[in-house]
Design brief:
The structure holds three protein chains of three kinds. Chain A has four domains: about 180 residues; about 110 residues, Fumarate Reductase Iron-sulfur Protein, Chain B, domain 2, CATH 1.10.1060; about 150 residues, no CATH class; about 120 residues, 3-Layer(aba) Sandwich (Rossmann fold). Chain A is built from 26 helices and eight strands. In chain A, the strands form two sheets. A four-stranded parallel sheet of chain A has the order 2-1-3-4. Chain A has a four-stranded parallel sheet with strand order 6-5-7-8, sandwiched between helices. Chain B is globular and about 65 Å long. Chain B folds into two domains: about 200 residues, HUPs (Rossmann fold), CATH 3.40.50.620; about 30 residues, no CATH class. Chain B has a nine-stranded mixed sheet, sandwiched between helices. A two-stranded antiparallel ribbon of chain B has the order 2-5. Chain B has a two-stranded antiparallel sheet with strand order 3-4. Chain C folds into two domains: about 180 residues, Rossmann fold (3-Layer(aba) Sandwich); about 120 residues, TPP-binding domain (Rossmann fold, 3-Layer(aba) Sandwich). Helices cover about 25% and strands about 30% of the residues of chain C. In chain C, the strands form four sheets. In chain C, strands 7-11-6-1-4-5-12 form a seven-stranded parallel sheet. In chain C, helix 2 crosses helix 3 and helix 4 runs parallel beside helix 8. Classes of the chains: A mainly alpha, B alpha/beta, C alpha/beta. Chains in contact: A-B, A-C, B-C. Chains A and B meet through helix 16 of A and helix 5 of B. Strand 15 of chain B pairs parallel with strand 18 of chain C, so a sheet runs across the interface.
Chain lengths: ~675, ~250, ~325
């Protein structure tokens, strides 16, 4: 189609673009290689299914669509539209280089269909871009930056659509009629050009727009690698290489003896995958929008952490690649990511849940915590007491471990440390259940339920030790592994096969993280067990609740383990229970503030997270707040006191609800 | 600057004390052992002195059974350089005999500063520091809450019945550490790993025959279960009576 | 083999302390059991006056070492003086009060005399021509009965456990003044300064008694009644975390898991519910009193004594009643 000069120009364009693209891509890859090795090559089948599933169905974007935020739909439209366009570019280039190629060769049905869809795609993309621009620059939701870069990208995409229509329009006005009548946008533009009296220049216009269109496409192609739009190329590999570990688990440090350092203090301490996360980020801000720290006025904004790390990698990239052996590398801990940001995180995973491209924010922060704790012994002062208490008395409060089973005296419970024997399920009571007066009531409620159902259970008694979840989440991986290994030995000694836990943190760590150290036990959460008992008629509920209840989804039960329905079904099994839901529930539940070891730390910045969540619960005017976690329970009780609502509203664990309504034989 | 810190392995302070054996010793089953907390202040202070001076060597000395070495390694992880373990499982109650064994070992260990905790939280005598100092004929100041070392002298602060005392002491000298001297550091993992490789010399303890012995060990009279004395102001006289006569808290 | 009891008579602020009388009283009883004399030893500067009155409490003799250089207590100098006097007086038992000075001197004397030591004794009994003592270990979680296998034996008595008998003014003690040679070597420790205790705020970590307030105190003004009680008892005023977060009290007063961990002899918790974060900071107090209007408050399960009621009525009543009781 093109004259010789044109073909040469096109080839030059392709060549130059390929050159700069390749160079930049190599550079970007070399930066990734600065990261530590990590094996994510397992399960290719699952990885392909996941990636294609997320991308092709646009689940990545649609999962975050709410009544208030429909932008995921906009993304879907843009994605499908633009992807279709990319296919058409192949045609354009082929057509440009090979004279014999012509759309009419493909038959009128194909032509009609293809170009109709192309025009439709182009129109949809243009509308989406306008919608996006209005949102970003006029409505200005907090999570989006009205930045220059974003503006350039939107403008370029818009102009690509526009240029394509101009090309089509002017082409239609030339004597060639290469394609069919369903090119509705092209036709409209053709009419427009004609109306402006430029019909006689159609040929010139066609070639002009054609070359400009190509230049913009190729220019954009290079720009992609220099901007946050790198996202469109990095998102797919990032989805592919998502973590195949059980959801939310942290990776263990494998070798304490010979390692030179622990945790992350420099950008190159991250693995290549953690660095790839930085490329995949398109700065959508969903993570920050859902972060409890950010939503309570704290410095931590997950998006900023990722962006700052990304910029740091780019700023120092050249230096790092040409660094000589023994040269100092700048620290990122305490500078690029501040101490406050590192310690503010409650590990709730709201960020990761909503991230469309599977970025792992929590791991990065916890890796930096590992550096601070293990390498520098630099952590909030009040945490040292907690570590020592875990070391010496196997509970964070440091209460004498010999008294761990005192709560169960006179309850007719089989205590293995006093008399080993046979049992079907081990009730792992946990530290709160053993030592916290408020939560001991929940342990007793649990016993009542188990006994009413005739379950053959036992507790470890004084041989039960702290599960170590807080130690791990605060970053003391060494202490955690010591505790985990000790616990696994004890479980094995008592021949434990199945365990019941009431605390979601204990549940999560026992079920998903202890296997990293050889544990092979079945673990159930009490809400799962109780629902089972109700469904199988092992317990019957009676009486009337006749109260308004709102349920809080604990992060470590909900997002981490996707246990959303059992607590609801249990409550709904109680006669006359009136369950009203908050807005932020299930996968978008708002953290109580105690996770990530924050239960043990002073909250010095911003508003108290537990008060934010309590306020939210109170907007539903409940009589009762239901939880299934000792941390959440404490946080809500403190929150209600702070709001002077503790007389009106009470907090109860699911076990307490059930125990209060047990029909006893 | 040579510093020696004497540490003792004791049961954790939350331990439920169970009298075992023939009623003269505690039952070690289920007991978690730690460095006596006051000794930990002494170890931490030794490290701070070394850090401030930029030089020095810290030796840990411990008289006790084989697993005293575990707690010595914890002191190493904080920053001590080496140690001497005087192996003795007799659980001798005679502080003087213990002091004599320590002093015998210390005669071979040159030091400028000799640090102890003010008392070991198992037997609570608070005597060994002073006894060792006297046996070695060096000055001793007990219960220090601040230590500054310079030019062959130490300036310390301590609480006395009259107020805060500032005492100047010629080195070599001994000091026993009181709570408030410092906040012991949490060891870095690298230091915990390195501690496994630091030198630890084991010697038999030269313990003479104890000059006192335990006839028996008893529990204190049981603490009565908590009770609600009454309601409102009317209950106050009964409460004060209980505080004065039963609890002897007033 | 001696049979005398040598007693350290502690002197402070121009007179002998009440613990000295306690020790002398017991010393006399022990001496009677051994068939020997109760000899008090007074060391310091300007301690001579009043020495013979120690006889009122049972001392048969008082040996005085009075020297200007001994104005300030150091264990090296006092220890030297004490041990020299003791060794020359046929000691069977060396007796002190388990005070700051007494504990230090006991250690010194034990090493100087090669004598076994038992500190902070709460009971003693004559046995087989010697004595046995009982003393607390593991912070009072157990007690041991100790017998001495050699003489002399050094022991210190826990203050306030052995109130002295009423003094008998008809009994006076023989006073002997001794000049001891003290060299520079005895003064390698020198007290440079004593900063007297200011009647000011007592820190919660140092207080023997703490009066603590929680949310029930309702505001900074509410603390006035607690401060009055604390003032009467010479106690520190503590606060729960809520109170500190609200800004009613400074962070240095905060008792709890993330505040200060305290272990006073008496902890009076007013308007504090007793959630575990607070308990973690004061659980090991020897005696815990709780005042709260909620009978279900968790603090009552940890407290030794509790009053269910309005703290604004109970605390002032408590202050008034204690004033009467202490006199």
């Amino acid at each position: 189609m093109l004259p010789i000069a044109g073909k040469i120009f096109l080839l030059l364009l392709i060549g130059i673009t390929a050159y700069f693209f390749t160079k930049r891509a190599q550079y970007l890859i070399s930066l990734l290689k600065l990261g530590k090795p990590e094996d994510r090559s397992d399960n290719p089948g699952e990885r392909w299914r996941f990636t294609l599933g997320q991308v092709l169905t646009q689940t990545c974007a649609l999962k975050n669509v709410t009544r208030k935020d429909l932008s995921g739909i906009g993304h879907m439209l843009l994605f499908y539209g633009f992807s279709f366009f990319v296919v058409s570019y192949g045609f354009h280039i082929a057509e440009g280089l090979y004279d014999k190629l012509n759309p009419s060769l493909l038959g009128s049905l194909f032509n009609n269909g293809f170009f109709f869809l192309l025009d439709l795609a182009g129109l949809v993309v243009m509308i989406s871009v306008i919608w996006a621009a209005i949102r970003r620059y006029i409505i200005r939701p907090e999570r989006l930056e009205p930045s220059l870069e974003a503006g350039v990208i939107l403008l370029v995409v818009f102009s690509l659509m526009l240029l394509n229509f101009l090309v089509e329009g002017s082409r239609l006005l030339t004597e060639e009629k290469p394609f069919a009548d369903w090119v509705f946008m092209g036709s409209a533009f053709a009419r427009g050009i004609a109306n402006m009296g430029l019909q006689s220049h159609a040929h010139t216009l066609f070639y002009f727009f054609w070359y400009v269109h190509m230049m913009v496409i190729f220019g954009f192609g290079i720009y992609i690698l220099y901007s946050k739009h790198l996202h469109i190329l990095a998102a797919h590999p990032n989805l592919y290489f998502h973590s195949s570990l059980p959801k939310g688990t942290l990776q263990p440090i494998k070798d304490f003896e010979s390692a030179e350092s622990f945790g992350v203090s420099k950008i190159t301490d991250f693995s290549w995958k953690q660095l790839l996360d930085l490329y995949a980020c398109t700065e959508c801000g969903q993570c920050s929008a859902n972060c409890p720290a950010n939503n309570s006025g704290k410095p931590l904004k997950p998006k900023d952490v990722i962006i700052n790390l990304k910029h740091n990698l780019f700023e120092n990239g050249q230096k790092l690649l040409t660094k000589k052996e023994g040269e100092e590398e700048p620290l990122i801990v305490g500078s690029v990511v501040t101490h406050d940001e590192i310690w503010d995180c409650t590990n709730c995973m709201a960020c990761m849940e909503v991230c469309p491209v599977a970025i792992e924010h929590v791991d990065k922060l916890d890796d930096m915590r590992r550096y601070l704790v293990l390498m520098e012994s630099n952590f909030p002062a009040e945490v040292q007491t907690v570590f020592r208490n875990m070391e010496n008395n196997s509970n964070p409060w440091g209460i004498g471990m010999a008294t761990r089973a005192d709560w169960a005296k006179d309850l007719g419970v089989k205590v293995l440390s006093e008399a080993p024997g046979e049992f079907d399920i081990l009730y792992y009571v946990g530290c709160a259940g053993s030592f916290d007066d408020r939560y001991k009531k929940v342990s007793r409620a649990m016993i009542k339920i188990l006994q009413a159902a005739g379950i053959k259970f036992a507790i470890l008694g004084t041989d039960e030790k702290c599960c170590g979840d807080s130690a791990r989440r605060i970053g003391n991986e060494y202490l955690f592994q010591t505790m985990a290994q000790e616990n696994i030995e004890i479980f094995k000694n008592y021949n434990v096969k199945k365990m019941l836990a009431t605390c979601p943190h204990g549940y999560n760590v026992l079920k998903k993280e202890y296997p990293q150290f050889g544990a092979e036990f079945e673990v159930v959460h009490h809400t799962e067990l109780i629902l089972d008992l109700i469904k199988n008629g092992r317990v019957t509920l009676k009486g009337e609740l006749a109260k308004t209840i709102t349920l809080h989804d604990s992060c470590f039960l909900g997002r981490y383990n996707e246990i959303y329905e059992p607590p609801r079904q249990i409550l709904n099994s109680i006669p006359q229970a009136n369950l009203v839901e908050m807005e932020r529930i299930k996968r978008t539940s708002f953290c109580c503030g105690a996770g990530g070891g924050r239960m043990w730390m002073e909250e010095l910045r911003g508003k108290k997270i537990n008060e934010v969540r309590t306020e939210e619960a109170l907007t539903k005017n409940p009589d009762l707040i239901a939880t299934a976690c000792p941390f959440c329970l404490t946080m809500f009780e403190d929150g209600l006191k702070a709001k002077n609502a503790d007389e009106k509203v009470k907090v109860l664990d699911i076990a307490e609800f059930v125990a209060n309504h047990l029909l006893e034989n | 600057m040579n510093i020696v810190v004497c540490v003792k392995r004791v049961p954790d302070t939350e331990t439920k004390v169970k009298i075992g054996g023939e009623g003269t010793k505690i039952d070690p089953a289920g007991v978690e052992f730690i460095i006596s907390p006051f000794d930990e202040f002494a170890v931490e202070e030794a490290i701070r002195v070394k850090e401030k001076l930029g030089k020095g060597e810290i030796t840990i000395l411990s008289l006790g059974p084989a697993d005293a070495q575990t707690i010595m390694r914890k002191a190493y992880a904080m920053g001590a350089d080496k140690g001497v373990h005087l192996n003795d499982s007799s659980e001798c109650q005679d502080t003087l005999a213990e002091a004599q064994a320590l002093a015998a070992a210390l005669k071979e260990m040159p030091f400028d500063l000799l640090l102890f905790g003010k008392q070991a939280v198992d037997y609570d005598n608070g005597a060994v520091g002073v006894q060792v100092a006297k046996l070695l004929n060096i000055p001793v100041v007990t219960r220090i809450i601040k230590l500054d070392v310079a030019d062959g002298k130490a300036i310390v602060e301590r609480e006395s019945d009259l107020g805060k005392e500032i005492v100047e002491v010629k080195l070599p000298a001994a000091f026993t550490a009181e709570k408030g001297l410092n906040e012991p550091r949490y060891p870095k993992l690298m230091d915990i790993m390195k501690a496994k490789k630091k030198p630890l010399e084991e010697k038999p303890a030269q313990l003479g025959d104890p000059k006192l012995s335990i006839v028996k060990m008893d529990y204190p009279p049981a603490r009565p279960p908590g009770k609600i004395v009454g309601e409102g102001e009317e209950a106050v006289p009964a409460l004060v009576n209980l505080l004065k006569n039963e609890a002897k808290a007033l | 083999m001696g049979n005398n009891v040598l007693i350290f008579a502690e002197h402070m602020g121009g007179k002998f302390r009440s613990v000295a009388y306690e020790a002398i009283c017991q010393g006399k009883k022990i001496a009677q059991g051994l068939g020997g004399k109760a000899i008090a030893v007074a060391i310091g500067a300007g301690v001579e006056g009043g020495a013979k009155d120690l006889g009122h409490y049972g001392a048969d003799k008082v040996i005085v070492v009075d020297n200007a250089k001994l104005k300030d207590f150091t264990v090296d100098a006092y220890g030297k003086a004490f041990s020299e006097v003791v060794s020359k007086n046929d000691p069977a038992v060396v007796l002190l009060a388990a005070t700051f000075q007494g504990k230090d001197l006991g250690g010194y004397a034990s090493a100087a005399l090669g004598a076994p030591l038992a500190s902070d004794c709460t009971e003693w009994a004559s046995q087989d021509g010697g004595i046995q003592v009982k003393r607390p270990i593991y912070a009072g979680k157990a007690y041991i009965t100790v017998k001495f296998n050699s003489q002399p034996a050094v022991l210190s008595l826990r203050p306030k456990v052995f109130p002295p008998d009423a003094p008998d003014a008809s009994k006076n003690a023989e006073v002997e003044k001794i000049d001891l040679a003290l060299s520079d070597d005895d003064f390698r420790s020198v007290v440079k300064e004593i900063v007297a205790k200011t009647a000011g705020k007592i820190d919660v970590t140092e207080a023997d008694i703490i009066v603590s307030g929680g949310r029930g105190v309702k505001g900074p003004e509410g603390f006035a009644v607690l401060e009055e009680l604390a003032g009467l008892l010479g106690a520190a005023v503590g606060a729960s975390r809520t109170v500190v977060d609200e800004g009613w009290r400074p962070h240095s007063d905060q008792v709890g898991q993330t505040g200060k961990v305290v272990s006073p002899k008496l902890y009076i918790a007013c308007g504090i519910s007793g959630a575990i974060q607070h308990l973690a900071g004061m659980r090991t107090s020897k005696c815990i009193v709780a005042i709260n209007k909620d009978p279900e408050a968790p603090i009552f399960s940890t407290a030794d004594y509790g009053i269910v009621g309005d703290l604004f009525k109970v605390v002032p009543a408590l202050t008034a009643e204690i004033k009467k009781a202490i006199g």
